[in-house]
Design goal:
mainly alpha
Amino acid sequence: MRRAEFINKSAAATFPSSDLSRRSAASNCVAAIVGSGIFLIGAAIGHAYQIALTHNMAPGNAGITFYSDIVLPVIGVVLLGLQWKSGRCGA
């Protein structure tokens, strides 16, 4: 048996199912949405704190920045849910 054939057969034995890769891709999608969502919600809480406590209404703290910190995680969760419901999550 040549070396290349051995490597191909051992790789097939190590990763026997494409289902594993689909689950991994789905987990990566969920991790990306949850991780960035937690970060953005935390940033929104920080912006709200600064607005309430110091009346910091600077463009980088209030307005579109504040609203996008709230809306983007919601959009991400909705899109992930739609992808999951359609059965294409991780495909």
